[in-house]
């Protein structure tokens, strides 16, 4: 089998889109003897296996072949999502809900909807790699906006970037338990970002995958709550709040554009799995989500505290970290002279994994930082993992 490069031309997408270094690291970190702080995985020991087994069995017994066929978006699931959005203060009808195969597909579809090659797009200077990949796939010209590790992106700077050198085609922010930093936007920033979209006429993607994973502090309404102009596209997913294998997410947006998304989606995968849609709906309507989240968030809280305690013990005063009130990640800032990517091999030799901060920077900054996932490591293993990490980061 040949492994040489093809002699025929490849598409723009194939030649410009890079595989995420994070996915490569997660593959390495999946070895059983590695303590991994690398992935964005929910607690494996708290996945609702028994509950999903019961729901799947109920769906197959009740719906039979209908659950295994092609089919339109499952109406009861859209109705549940619309109700959940209304409970969070968002004016949402069933017609505003578009079901996707996860939040990443939602981002991909919105990129297809809003971007052309060369289109300006505004992102946070630290952001989820999947957002950058979607924009790269469409040849977007990125405009990163400075990010505050305590308060998130500055709305005034974000609005200025939406118009700098001509109007952008879209902006994207992560409001709650930011990936990779863990910070959440204050209420005033949420209001200001919705107002910025209205004033500039530039659509804003709100990637809200983590807000249900709160274990401390008071919840805040989404940016979409303040969206009177209909320019905020809200994105969320069941992957982090139920299970990653439940590849279901959703977009809330203007009904005419939700209809247009159907055509954009047909060339990808036609539709989301009927079996998954019905199983997730069974899980939701049986009232299983609330107790599951309560247990999951309690475990995440304990694991965050274990990681904070271990960092305080193993790292010096020149190291700082965020203190998230939910989600899966915290952000560690090392001394300015430290290159956090340099010790990756030493860390792996010590059987511990993490993601260097530079991987989340479209500009290649934050080289002295790293993202740590605490949710998928047992508390008694977190201390050992941080000890190994500290050892790897020390100069030889």
Provide structural commentary.
This protein is of the alpha/beta class. It has two domains: 133 residues, Aspartate Aminotransferase, domain 1; 237 residues, Aspartate Aminotransferase, domain 2, CATH 3.40.640. Helix content is 39%, strand content 14%. It has a seven-stranded mixed sheet with strand order 2-10-9-8-7-3-4, with helices on both faces. A four-stranded antiparallel sheet has the order 11-12-15-14, with no helix packed on it. A two-stranded parallel ribbon has the order 1-13. Helix 6 links the parallel strand 3 and strand 4. Helix 5 packs across helix 9.
Please describe the topology of this protein.
Blueprint: H1 12-16, H2 21-29, E1 35-36, H3 49-63, H4 75-87, E2 97-100, H5 103-114, E3 120-124, H6 129-137, E4 141-145, E5 147-148, E6 152-153, H7 155-163, E7 170-173, H8 187-200, E8 204-207, E9 232-237, E10 249-252, H9 255-265, H10 274-285, H11 289-314, E11 320-321, E12 329-333, H12 344-349, E13 352-353, E14 355-356, E15 369-373, H13 379-393
Parallel strand pairs: 1-13, 3-4, 3-7, 7-8, 8-9
Antiparallel strand pairs: 2-10, 5-6, 9-10, 11-12, 12-15, 14-15
SS-derived structural category: alpha/beta
Overall pLDDT confidence: 93
Main beta-sheet annotation = 7 strands, mixed
User: Strands across the major sheet, in which order?
Assistant: 2-10-9-8-7-3-4
């Amino acid at each position: 089998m040949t492994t040489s490069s093809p002699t025929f031309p490849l598409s723009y997408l194939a030649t410009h889109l890079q595989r995420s270094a994070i996915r490569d690291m997660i593959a390495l970190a999946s070895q059983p003897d590695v303590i991994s702080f690398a992935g964005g995985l929910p607690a494996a020991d708290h996945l609702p296996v028994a509950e999903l087994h019961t729901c799947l069995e109920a769906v197959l017994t009740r719906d039979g072949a209908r659950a295994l066929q092609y089919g339109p978006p499952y109406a009861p699931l859209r109705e549940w999502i619309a109700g959940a959005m209304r409970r969070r203060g968002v004016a949402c009808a069933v017609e505003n809900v578009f079901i996707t195969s996860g939040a990443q597909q939602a981002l991909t579809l919105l990129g297809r909807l809003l971007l052309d090659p060369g289109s300006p797009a505004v992102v946070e200077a630290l952001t989820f790699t999947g957002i950058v990949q979607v924009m790269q796939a469409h040849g977007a010209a990125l405009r990163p906006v400075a990010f505050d590790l305590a308060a998130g992106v500055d709305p005034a700077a974000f609005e200025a970037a939406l118009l700098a050198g001509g109007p952008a085609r879209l902006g994207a922010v992560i409001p709650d338990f930011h990936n990779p930093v863990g910070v959440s936007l204050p209420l005033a920033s949420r209001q200001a970002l919705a107002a910025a979209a209205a004033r500039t006429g530039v659509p804003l993607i709100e990637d809200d995958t983590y807000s249900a994973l709160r274990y401390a502090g008071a919840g805040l309404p989404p940016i979409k709550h303040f969206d009177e102009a209909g320019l905020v596209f809200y994105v969320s997913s069941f992957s982090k709040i139920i299970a990653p294998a439940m590849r279901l997410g959703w977009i809330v947006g203007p009904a005419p554009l939700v209809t247009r998304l159907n055509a954009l989606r047909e060339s990808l995968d036609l539709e989301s799995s009927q079996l998954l849609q019905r199983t997730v709906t069974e899980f939701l309507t049986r009232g299983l989500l609330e107790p599951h989240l309560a247990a999951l968030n309690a475990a995440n809280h304990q694991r965050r505290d274990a990681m904070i305690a271990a960092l305080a013990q193993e790292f010096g005063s020149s190291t700082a970290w965020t203190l998230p009130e939910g989600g899966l990640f915290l952000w560690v800032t090392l001394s300015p002279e430290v290159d956090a990517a340099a010790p990756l091999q030493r860390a792996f030799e010590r059987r511990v994994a993490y993601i260097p901060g530079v991987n989340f920077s479209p500009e290649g900054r934050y080289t002295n930082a790293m993202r740590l996932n605490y949710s998928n490591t047992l508390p008694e293993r977190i201390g050992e993992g941080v000890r190994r990490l500290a050892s790897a980061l020390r100069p030889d």
